[in-house]
Design brief:
The chain is α/β, with parallel strands linked by helices and 374 residues long. The protein has 12 helices and 14 strands. Helix 3 packs across helix 4 and helix 9 packs across helix 10. The model has no long low-confidence stretch (mean pLDDT 97). Bound molecules: pyridoxal-5'-phosphate (PLP).
Amino acid sequence: MERDAILLTPGPLTTTERTKRAMLRDWGSWDSSFIAVTTGLRRQLLKIVHGEGSHVVVPLQGSGTFAVEAAVATIVPKTGHVLVLDNGAYCKRMGRLSTLMGRKTTILGHAEDQPVSPTELESALRGDASISHVGLIHCETGTGVLNPLQAIADVCARHGKGLIVDAMSSFAALPIDAREVRFDALVAASGKCLEGVPGMGFVFIRKDVIDGAAGNSHSLAMDLHDQHVYMEKTGQWRFTPPTHVVAALAEAMRQFEEEGGQSARGARYAANCAALVAGMKALGFVPFLKAEIQAPIILTFHAPADPAYDFKRFYDAVKARGFILYPGKLTQVETFRVGCIGAIGPAEMTEAVAAVAGAMKELGIRTGTPAVPA
Ligand SMILES: Cc1ncc(COP(=O)(O)O)c(C=O)c1O
């Protein structure tokens, strides 16, 4: 099979042939064989966060945002008040969806090149007793910054506040242990670090929280309590399941376990990240974030100052060499992003750097050095 372009993006991402082949079968949603796939998948997902016994996992059709929206709709009562810790685009999205759903929402803004602050959260919670829930993005994929999940969870636990974590781009690659990190809900999706295809999200919810969540949701489709109760009773999804996506995820999960689980996956992505950064730095590029706050998921690089640089032309030239880059998401500085996740290793990252070097030569970009170094 001819190789597809390698996706250096935060999802959809490059998947293995085994995962793609798992979609070559049609499943009946009511059939016991498909019910067994869903049940097995839920059991394995819970194992990754060590949530067996204490948590449930509720899958939901749709892209990742659908699952974030469903988590807020289901967990936060209509009279609740969500404080969103904001240091980037996905934080802003959580704030927006919470506001649109009619939940009182406060945004605690931070700089985009800094992690969110447990100290600032502490004073915000002291200053407003009406806050019932905190929203956190674990890895803010807009830049790639890693936010301090454990420290934020500890502050929320001390204050008796609920915590909703969007761990979309970190789950399965970075350690998350539900026995240590107290969260109400933690959201991830099929097409990220588990290396499945996009099309379903899933939300880990503490048992006492899901049991008390009946009637919170304003929306039928987004009601994870309803989905959970139905799934527990019948083994089935409430509405048409993304059968091929579920089958692909079950196959991707087998490969995840064969690889050695979260620690092995995290180590491969860290090696990808190191190979990418070393190669790009050698071409003059400068990462937007300091290394110590960078998650090994996606890298933001400053755009080169060379007048020959134009993102669209650069993107096309890199694509012609077999690699798909990702545009930047920052408003103040011109950047582009390169993902290190997916069924790829350091060898592909080194090839990607060679593709960037080839594109620079073709376009006459002498160096990747930006006008404003970080
Ligand atoms: C942190 C984060 N939240 C949410 C999402 C969900 O986005 P989508 O609805 O496009 O899958 C993503 C996707 O990359 C993400 O990285």
